[in-house]
Write a structure and sequence with these properties.
- This protein is α/β, with parallel strands linked by helices and about 375 residues long.
- About 40% of the residues lie in helices and about 20% in strands.
- Helix 5 links the parallel strand 7 and strand 8.
- The radius of gyration is 21 Å and the shape is globular.
- This is Penicillin-binding protein activator.
- Pfam families: Peripla_BP_6.
């Protein structure tokens, strides 16, 4: 089947003022008129986070092709437009205004970062267009309004569970932390350090770096090593984390390493190599999931990209699929779509089983993953609950 893809670039500067009132208008039903249901996807398709945006695009192409080949939704085809925000909040805001001004989109998936998602969300909230971010973890994101959802466990929730795991399940109480100095990293660090104290542990060193820019981590690592921690917690994207691990090895700093699930990507294994052995992280889906839809996605994604599925794959798939199921159930009425999604309970998605809480973020149990012989493996019989 010929694949239907619509790739659009970012809107140039010039619609900033419209963010205060929204651009254009459409009724809840109007966006569903015609022979298609139109979904907008906002993601970084170029720049230093392009690998994440392209993961979304590859995944959602798989889902869209599957749905359309099976007859679409309510007899209509699904049309997806990809917008490149370049991991820039201003670009994301411009795109949001462009989408609203178009007047034909019934839902939005995106963006990948909390900052871009939070820049765009007020526009969609005001217009009444359901928006689901696969990865935005800032707790303030969904507080923007009742049309705003996230597939990502909040960064504070995951950070707390990670602290609990380190102290209660692995018995380490003196922890050094290194984190990226951005909204996400600062939020993770704040919750993690608070939670370590609540579970009876302590922070021996608390070091930060500029994501994508810091290249020499040795001064930070030296401070952590001097603090004599029992373990290290790394809150970083995979490219920075790979460098941190290499430089830890260069300094003979060998302690157990725990990390955020941002390191659950094939690209991290490729970059970090043997330095990644034994790292532990939480993840919200089961690696050995045998559900039919998960197996389909896993096989299709590996065939398409050569990479294994990760949370960027599973959560973007579930984000789009929830929109499509909401469209099917409500015939594309955006108010009813919002309510349908908010009422989701015990939903068995490819990213795990979850329910949305009252602030429209999922509540899930977390599984413990490690890296053994250059591959991810799930630690058996270990589930971390709040």
């Amino acid at each position: 089947m010929k694949k239907r893809r619509w790739l659009a670039g970012c809107l140039a500067m010039g619609c900033l003022a419209a963010a205060m009132t929204g651009c254009g208008s459409s009724s809840a039903e109007g966006a569903a008129d015609g022979d298609t249901y139109k979904i907008a996807v906002i993601a970084p398709l170029t720049g230093d986070a392009a690998q994440y945006g392209m993961t979304y695009q590859n995944t959602l192409d798989i889902l869209t092709d599957k749905v359309n080949a099976e007859g679409g939704v309510n007899g209509k085809q699904v049309e997806v437009t990809y917008f490149d925000d370049k991991k820039d909040a201003k670009e994301a805001l411009n795109i949001a205004n462009k989408i609203v001004a178009d007047g034909s989109y019934i839902g939005v998936v995106g963006s990948q970062t909390s900052s871009c998602s939070m820049a765009a969300a007020p526009v969609f909230q005001e217009e009444g267009i359901p928006m689901i971010s696969p990865q935005a973890s800032n707790p303030q994101f969904t507080e923007i309004g009742d049309y705003i959802f996230s597939m990502q466990l909040s960064s504070s929730y995951e950070a707390e569970l990670t602290a609990k795991m380190i102290v209660e399940n692995y018995g380490y109480k003196n922890i050094a932390v290194i984190y990226s100095n951005d909204d996400w990293g600062v939020g993770v660090n704040t919750q993690f350090t608070d939670s370590i104290g609540e579970y009876g542990g302590s922070i021996s060193a608390d070091e930060t770096f500029i994501a994508g820019q810091t290249k020499d981590f040795t001064p930070l690592i030296s401070k952590m090593k001097e603090s004599a921690p029992e373990a290290v917690f790394v809150a970083a994207l995979y490219s920075d984390a790979a460098q941190i691990l290499q430089q830890m090895k260069n300094l003979d700093f060998e302690v157990p390493v725990f990390a955020t699930n941002t390191l659950y990507k094939q690209e991290f294994l490729d970059l970090a190599g043997a330095n990644a052995e034994g790292i532990l992280m939480l993840n919200s889906f089961e690696l050995e999931n045998t559900d039919e839809e998960y197996v389909y996605l896993k096989d299709a994604y590996e065939e398409k990209t050569g990479n294994q599925v990760d949370t960027y794959v599973t959560q973007s798939y579930d984000a789009m699929n929830l929109l499509l199921k909401a469209i099917e159930a409500t015939d594309g009425d955006r108010v009813k779509m919002r309510d349908w999604i908010a009422d989701v309970k015990d939903y068995r998605g490819v990213s795990g089983t979850f329910s949305f809480n009252d602030v429209r973020v999922p509540i899930k149990d977390e599984y413990v993953f490690t890296i053994t012989d250059g591959a991810y493996a799930q630690v058996p019989d270990l589930v971390i609950k709040q």
